[in-house]
Amino acid sequence: QKFQCSEDVALTVIKAYSKNLLVDKAVETFQNMVEIFGCGPGIRSYNTLLNAFVVSNQLSKAELFFRSFETMGVAPNLETYNILIKLSCRRRKFDNAKELLNWLWDNGFKPDVYGYGTLIDGLAKVGDLRSALKLLDEMSERGVIPDVTCYNILINGFFKKGDLAGANETWERMIRGSSVYPSVISYNVMISGLCKCRRFTEALELWSR
User: Burial, 38: exposed, middle or buried (Cβ in 10 Å; 0-12, 13-18, 19+)?
Assistant: First the structure.
């Protein structure tokens, strides 16, 4: 119908394909936005497709696509760099992700809880809870407030390592030393972890709370 749409309409389609891991369809839609929707891709469309490559573990394609940003005259934003942090974590190149966070601070960006949370999640999944906790401290020192998801990731990570003390310390830090309130997920993680450690009385107390 040659109707001119906003980028939001095209993004709805690209995101739908991406969430269902139909990355080829997302690429096809991205490449034909002008013909189909009457609008060209902006940074949000580029980021959505970049994230689709990462989520589907097409990491080499993600790196190649990011390199095309400069060629196409597209300026990366904070969301772009958060996706690159996720890419580094998928490759288990955690030092690269940390360097990218430092680069962002040095170049006028303010890393947010999403970027830090992604790296904390990656470190927790490989059992490096010490480094993950250091990142939590760094967030607080730099004025980035950790959210409940960061704490949930750490608590779950400690339980997976069988470290009840670490899980309890992180729980106490969340409920007493921060402005974050536990969510239903937080209680589920704690109750499940305590049961696996056969600490049923403590689990029942939390359930009652």
Answer: middle
Give the tokens for residue 115.
Answer: 């970027």
Contact (CB, 8 A) for 10 and 29? yes
pTM of the model: 0.91
**What is the Cα–Cα distance from 171 to 36, expressed in whole angstroms?**
50
Q: Which amino acid is at 38?
A: G
195: which 2 tokens?
A: 């049961």
Q: Which amino acid is at 75?
A: A
Site of tokens 């990142």: 135
Question: 13: which 2 tokens?
Answer: 């389609």
Burial class from Cβ neighbours inside 10 Å (0-12, 13-18, 19+) for residue 187 reads middle
- Which residue has 């119908």 as its token pair? 1
Half-sphere exposure of residue 173: CA atoms within 13 angstroms, side-chain side:
18
Q: For 70-105, what is each residue's pLDDT tens digit?
A: 999 999 999 999 999 999 999 999 999 999 999 999
Q: Which amino acid is at 206?
A: L
Nearest by Cα to 37 from 16, 15, 14: 14
